[in-house]
Amino acid sequence: MDVRLDDLRVDGILRGVDLHAPDREVHGIVGPNGSGKSTTLRCVYRALRPSGGAVLLDGRDIAGARVRDTAEHLAALTQDSHVEFDFTVTEVVAMGRLPHRGSPEDDEEVVAEALSRVDAAHLAHRGFLSLSGGERQRVLIARALAQRPKVLVLDEPTNHLDINHQLAVLSLVRGLGVTVLAVLHDLNLAAAHCDRLHVLDGGRVVRSGTPEEVLTPEVLHEVFRVRAHVVRHPTSGVPQLLFEHRESTP
Amino acid sequence: MTPTSSQARPPTARRPPTAGLCLALTAVLAASVVAGVALGPVGIGFGDVLRFLAAALTGGTLDAAEAGPYRIVWDIRLPRVLLAAVVGAGLSAVGVAIQAMVRNALADPYVLGISSGASVGATAVVTTGLFASLGIYALSTAAFLAALAAMGLVYVVTGRDLTPLRLVLTGTAMAYGFSAVAMLLVFQSPRGEAARAAMFWLLGSLGGVTWTSLPIAAAVTAAGIAYLLTRAKHLNALSMGDETATTLGIDVSRTRKALFGVTAAMTGVLVAVSGAVGFVGLMLPHLVRLVVGADHRKVLAVAPLAGACFLIWVDVAARLLAAPEELPLGVITAALGVPCFILLMRRRGYVFGGR
Description:
With about 250 residues, chain A is of the alpha/beta class. Helices cover about 30% and strands about 25% of the residues of chain A.
């Protein structure tokens, strides 16, 4: 599914975000703290109503669709996951089936599959609140997968994950064959796993393109105010960044 | 309260099947109704109770000598026991729904200020003789009208979107305001008896219940529980956070408004017929979650049955413990509930609100 953000505005935060992620591409959003990354995603998964502009899925403005209809195609990993009661892992993942009208047997199968894809099948009967941060994150990703979305919106999916699971989750996401819009903090992970990157600064997209085009020493200096060297990954060839220790702060 | 490691709880929680549990509780409920009717200052045999009930329901005949006990069973005890069941079921279900709706493990049916509002109406009747023309219905009517007014006020003050925190803060603040008004009424009252009467009402009582108050309370409670059961999955999603619920296809604002309306109306009716019976709506939901887990489809099926049984026995205790005086229900719910709750909490490593 094709995702387009058209002049997206949120008072005081977003000043016209334009972004286009064609069907089945993995797009990363990067930028310094407070640049509007999460706010952009919140508009896409409808937690926030933009004050101007639109989010278009296959050319249709989501503002005109029912929340439930959007949830049939679009799943999200949000930052507000705050569980008050001790659901089991299976119950949490099964919530991903809420927008669909499937039979309980099918749902069960989808839930089990989603759990095993994030390497969490062994947690199925555990209480969610008894899990570690990384385990919780994987379970929440499984919930998004159980929604069988065509668009996956991820707000810092690698949070709390160890390096093995960071790589596993990102390659899983790449292999899903769905459109992905992800906010990523780790620029090297973003460079290695995204088809295109969008750099947000001050509430607008200041640079878009392939990781090679976007992650240049100039952009990093301008937007993140760091000095960096760009090197090629010896096997995959993707650009990777080496940061220079800074003597003084601006 | 929080397990510090994953070893603190068994990897697989043993949980009874919900259908079996509901069936067992229904049997316990039926037995509790009979026992509740039989037990009291005037003891009546279980066999006699069953015979009287059969006679009343099928139109059978009884000895003239049995007219006295029959009156006690049919006119006094049965409506009271049934109302106890209705109130227990309703408060438990409302407690479950409100805890999920405001995502707060400490919430109970009274956190929205509805009951404190009702108490203003009730104390006004007790102290000033308001609605005197309505006779014995004055108290319930005034309490219900005041509950409705409180509900409207809380809704308006909370503002456009009923976010959990705003709802709880507004409800709590308003509750203090309403309580202040009720206390002012009591202390300004020239009748010394008024304070005691108002206090007794506030702590909940089913004394003097007749058949007339039962149908409305039962109908509202049944309809409310049925509605909540259809919203069980929504409550699951809402307990995961508003943003997550939105991504799962829930129109959060509309769902919460509907839940507010339904739970507030149920609370208003229940408080009007029985006063503000405390603790049931806070504790029963947690007790049930301890047994069946957090899934609201299970919790909402089991909690009303458990609450109904619980309050029947509480009311029996209220009648018996200090007979011929009656104790307020709130005293007994707390006396029974607190130790039982602490025990279960410690034994199962129950997680309140996580972390």
